[in-house]
Amino acid sequence: MSETTGTDTGSGTGTGAVRTAAVIGTGTIGLGWIALFAAAGLAVRVHSRRPDAERHVRAALGRYAATLPDGPRDPEELAARLRFEPDLARAVEGADAVQENAPEDLALKRDLFARAGAAAGPRALLLSSTSTLSPDDLGAATADPSRLLVAHPFNPPHIVPLVEVVAGERTDPAAVDDAVAFYRGLGKTPVVLRRTVPGFVANRLQSALLRESVHLVREGVVTVAELDGIVTASIGPRWAAVGPFRAFHLGGGPGGLRHWFQHLGVGLERGWAGLGAPPVDEATVGTVIAQADEAFGDRSYEELAADRDAVQNAVIAAVALARATPPDPAEGRAHGAAAGDADGAATDGPAGTVRIGAVPRSA
């Protein structure tokens, strides 16, 4: 593996004080960050345990460069911003931000942060993409964890806007502000969690839906393909426009969420009690995998990912454009008159304000 390719002088347009970023790990998440950071004009240091890291990253950039939210980029242009460093200390030295994407192994991540924290400057942000571990656990062996925090993306991170920002007991509030500014500058939607909870928020919601999905397939109510179709034809587009609370607030008509709970939510606890808790045993997993293979097993990972990414980009751009377009007052009055089934979305705030998904960007 060569130590360097490209320069180390980033422009970092819009990313606050961050001009140089180190990315630890070159799995799916790490690759997404590498592409996004390079597209934002940052100088990117890449550290990986893979002996073929440079070849691996360069090959992947072709796919990732084609699906960046602001439009396709030349993968060679992105690659020119990368520097490959097999030595961790050299990778993080002088970096303004360190984005860690190692496997979910606490001992491994602790060691990485202990070494990265010692080699990086005192103002460097130490950021973890972990989906399960707390910042306090991650920083237990770090001499100064005041700049260490979780910054959990939703996959793929170069497309999906959310970044869950989680501070530890010893995290400096200024580091949280700096992290938020950094991710906003990248076009992301950072949300600071008020406290640490296992799995954070988005994955807990996704896990709850997956549990019921597996239950329904296991019980023979629907197939894997049918369930995917139900989601993409109902709550998928709805939640791209509004979140669950606002959706049910609208479902209550002019009386809002209060009316919904009083008149439609009375059987909620009974309904929750009837939700499934399927075992993750060999039979259940076998059923789900067999149906998934039948539904989309004839397409390669690259084909499926390209289809997903193209559609997700189109949805995000369409929502941003809709939010930026002033609503027709006549349409609003018509919706108000038919408030018995108020599932539609309304613009929040002044024209041009994007409240969901991504910060305003050109569509």
Automatic annotation (TrEMBL):
The keyword Transmembrane helix applies. Pathway: Lipid metabolism; butanoate metabolism. Residues 199-265 form the 3-hydroxyacyl-CoA dehydrogenase C-terminal domain. This is Hydroxylacyl-CoA dehydrogenase. Residues 335-352 have a biased composition (Low complexity). InterPro entries: 3-OHacyl-CoA_DH_NAD-bd (IPR006176), 3HC_DH_C (IPR006108), 6-PGluconate_DH-like_C_sf (IPR008927), 6PGD_dom2 (IPR013328), NAD(P)-bd_dom_sf (IPR036291). Residues 325-363 are annotated as: Disordered. One of its GO terms (molecular function) is NAD+ binding. Keywords: Membrane, Oxidoreductase, Transmembrane, Transmembrane helix. It comes from Streptomyces termitum. GO terms for biological process: fatty acid metabolic process. Residues 21-194 form the 3-hydroxyacyl-CoA dehydrogenase NAD binding domain. The lineage of its organism: Bacteria, Bacillati, Actinomycetota, Actinomycetes, Kitasatosporales. The keyword Transmembrane helix applies. Belongs to the 3-hydroxyacyl-CoA dehydrogenase family. The chain crosses the membrane at residues 20-44.
